[in-house]
Specification:
Elements: E1 5-7, E2 10-12, H1 27-38, H2 42-54, H3 62-73, H4 78-90, H5 98-109, H6 114-126, H7 134-145, H8 150-162, H9 170-181, H10 186-198, H11 206-217, H12 222-234, H13 242-253, H14 258-270, H15 278-289, H16 294-306, H17 314-325, H18 330-342, H19 350-361, H20 366-378, H21 384-390
Antiparallel strand pairs: 1-2
Helix pairs in contact: 1-2, 2-3, 3-4, 4-5, 5-6, 6-7, 7-8, 8-9, 9-10, 10-11, 11-12, 12-13, 13-14, 14-15, 15-16, 16-17, 17-18, 18-19, 19-20
């Protein structure tokens, strides 16, 4: 399983550099390259492999591409070693084989090929084909980053941010994120924006955060689009604008970003920056809820509970409340308890009502504590253990 790190809202996505996407320019060139490849020229074998890989000038055929890359690999061709390694990672035209990918990446990396150095670091980071080692990941990222490879610079920033294989340092993370961000790396731009947003390793500045979020957002980075919407909604580093907030939330939501879908639904529910519509709110809450986003599950349950934008349906409300309640969302635990207490959409059960009120109360929810106290006072189906705890 690929390791994904979350810390203070910063998504640490380790980036695997893809293979080159080059192909011969025209049919005449392709004929010449084919003849040269058949005669054993490694560069031509690589170029021909690229043609089959991309499907330019010839029908796309990953197996045929792998054949030509393999011939060049036997001659120590670094770019072919890298590309065939990438194909083994992704199972393109060859079997998915991280061990073989590691061997190929290492061959190219030891020749100083920056992309392979980065990708070898990724294998060590994730423990794919090798024993997981953040120290070895750092070694290869560093070699690649020093050659100016933006993916490696970004990945090195992740290690420093989280203190993996290196001493934790927001300042070092900022240094490497910035180097990658200035090359246009959208993930690095987003994470650099988060450092400014949270004042980590730099002086807090919503204006600087907005600058980097916008650069990433304009490249289609959904995380950046969502948080840029947040800045506009609350007027942080920009003039407050509900319309701009809705615009950026929508762009992220349309990419399937669950939190952005929730935020857009909330804007529709309350009519901020968009025309008020419970129906639209329900549509976006549903898309987010189906991805397991807790608050959206709760809000969708509430719309079904109240018949807002959807036909009132206590059974469906209970379904969504339960999904959120099982993720320890206290408001859903209380609402599910209410449905059990009154027998709406579920069989009436004071014991079940008590169970869900108690779970919310244990999180410190005062409303849940009040509901529990009312059940105790009425002695309605409350267990003996519950009554003992009342003393």
């Amino acid at each position: 399983m690929q390791l994904r790190l979350l810390k203070l809202g910063l998504a640490a996505l380790v980036v695997l550099a893809p293979g080159l996407l080059l192909a011969p320019a025209n049919g005449s060139d392709l004929k010449t390259i084919t003849q040269s490849a058949e005669q054993g020229d490694a560069d031509s074998q690589f170029e021909l492999g690229q043609a089959y890989y991309t499907g330019q000038q010839v029908p796309q055929d990953h197996k045929e591409a792998a054949k030509w890359f393999q011939l060049a690999v036997k001659q120590g061709h670094a770019k072919s070693q890298h590309k065939l390694g990438y194909m083994h990672v992704n199972g393109l035209g060859v079997s998915q084989d991280f061990v073989q990918a590691e061997k190929l990446y290492r061959l190219a990396a030891e020749q100083g090929y920056a992309k392979s150095q980065n990708n070898l670091g990724v294998l060590y980071f994730n423990g794919q084909g090798v024993s997981q080692s953040f120290q070895d990941a750092e070694k290869w990222y560093q070699l690649s980053a020093e050659q100016g490879h933006d993916h490696a610079q970004y990945n090195l920033g992740i290690l420093y941010y989280n203190g993996l294989g290196v001493s934790q340092s927001y300042q070092e993370a900022e240094k490497w994120y910035r180097l990658a961000a200035e090359q246009g790396n959208a993930n690095a731009q987003y994470d650099l924006g988060l450092l400014y947003n949270n004042g980590l390793g730099v002086s807090q500045s919503f204006q600087e955060a907005e600058k980097w979020f916008r650069l990433a957002a304009e490249q289609g980075n959904a995380n950046a689009q969502n948080i840029l919407g947040h800045l506009y909604e609350y007027g942080l580093g920009v003039s407050k604008s509900a319309q701009e907030a809705a615009k950026w939330r929508r762009l992220a939501a349309e990419q399937g970003h669950a939190k952005a879908q929730y935020n857009l639904a909330r804007l529709y529910e309350y009519g901020h920056g968009v025309s008020h519509s419970y129906q639209k709110a329900a549509e976006w809450y549903r898309l987010s809820a189906e991805q397991g986003y807790t608050i959206s599950q709760h809000r969708l349950g509430k719309l079904y509970n109240n018949g807002q934008g959807v036909k009132q349906d206590y059974k469906t409300a209970a379904k969504w409340y339960r999904l959120a309640a099982e993720q320890e969302y206290s408001s859903s635990q209380i609402n599910l308890g209410l449905l059990y207490e009154h027998g709406h959409g579920v069989s009436q059960s004071f014991q079940e009502a008590e169970k869900w009120y108690r779970l919310a109360a244990e999180q410190g929810d005062l409303k849940a504590k009040s509901k529990l106290e009312a059940l105790y006072n009425n002695r309605q189906g409350v267990s003996g253990d519950s009554q003992k705890e009342e003393k």
